[in-house]
Design brief:
The chain is an alpha+beta fold. The protein contains seven helices and ten strands. Bound molecules: 2-oxoglutaric acid and fe (ii) ion. Fe (ii) ion binds next to loops.
């Protein structure tokens, strides 16, 4: 009973309906200063070379920016499995509870996470329009979602996340080559969206410290340059609902899709990656 009451307070029925309709949601400031300060400290530890847990293959099979690797946008994937201070924020019950309510799932587990750090003074560097679910071909679920948590106030000037409103309902109709985290052309997509008969409606998710946003795994999103003088640091926590399972998937060239998750998690009796492995996919809710 207590849990149900908490959920009702954190997210109203209207909030859930909004998420289902628009494919994104902004929370109230529910994350503590302490949790965010800890995550910032964890990030400093990571970039100084400290590892609470060594994950073999990080840096080779997934991004792990370290000092000396350029002054552009930094990307550190699977960081919560390596740093305990970051995992406290990434795996927080609060994030899990809100994600569960929004997606209508009784269970939420981590899928993976990443820090995206943009130095100040950017003029061109963007995160290209993409759909997170396109990177998760081995997942059966179409209800996975991402919590985007800035580690400071994040007004428009800092290049926060931008989501195309309602795009989770039609993103599958777009030509895939138009979409990529690494694509630089932010303007070209509007034409393609309009040609399909949909409205190109970018929503800039401006947040205060302690707030976070959720976006659906089929929602198109990206971000513009950080034009401010301070860094923009965000923790993106990619989440799976309780129904998600591994399925075999092939790339366009016919080779099997293999995610970094698949390399590091245990196997089911049938020999397939087990997306319920608590060691790699901890349960938040
Ligand atoms: O932080 C960004 O600009 C992009 C993050 C992102 O793609 C995500 O949260 O799924
Ligand atoms: Fe994304």
């Amino acid at each position: 009973m207590q849990r149900v009451m908490m959920t009702e307070k954190l997210l109203s029925e209207e909030d859930v309906a909004f998420y289902q309709e628009h494919g994104w949601l902004v929370t109230s400031p529910v994350l503590s200063d302490r949790a965010i300060d800890d995550a910032l400290q964890g990030l400093d530890q990571h970039w100084s070379g400290h590892r609470d847990h060594v994950l073999p293959g990080v840096g080779k099979y997934c991004a792990d920016w370290m000092p000396g690797e350029g002054e552009g946008t930094r990307n550190n994937e699977y960081i919560s499995l390596q740093n305990d201070l970051i995992s406290r924020l990434a795996w927080s019950r609060m994030v899990g509870e809100i994600a569960a309510a929004a997606s209508g799932s009784s269970e939420i587990r981590l899928f993976d996470d990443q820090i995206v750090y943009k130095p100040g003074g950017q003029t061109e560097a963007v995160v290209g329009w993409h759909v997170d679910g396109d990177y998760w071909g081995t997942c059966t679920s179409q209800e996975m979602l991402t919590a985007w948590i800035p580690l400071h106030d994040c007004p428009a000037e800092l290049g926060p996340l931008v989501v195309l409103d309602g795009s989770h309902k039609w993103s599958h109709l777009l030509e895939r080559s138009a979409l990529s985290f690494h694509r630089k052309d932010m303007e070209g997509l509007a034409k393609a969206v309009n040609e399909l008969g949909f409205e190109f409606k970018p929503v800039t998710i401006q947040l205060r410290r302690g707030q976070f946003s959720l976006h659906h795994c089929r929602a198109i999103h990206g971000s513009y340059p950080n034009r401010s003088t301070q860094p923009r640091i965000a923790l993106a926590v990619h989440l799976q609902d309780g129904n998600n399972r591994y399925r075999r998937a092939l790339r366009p060239d016919g080779r099997p899709v293999e995610l970094f998750n698949d390399r590091i998690c245990r196997r089911t009796e049938g020999g397939e990656p087990d997306y319920q492995d608590d060691a790699v996919f901890p349960r938040l809710w």
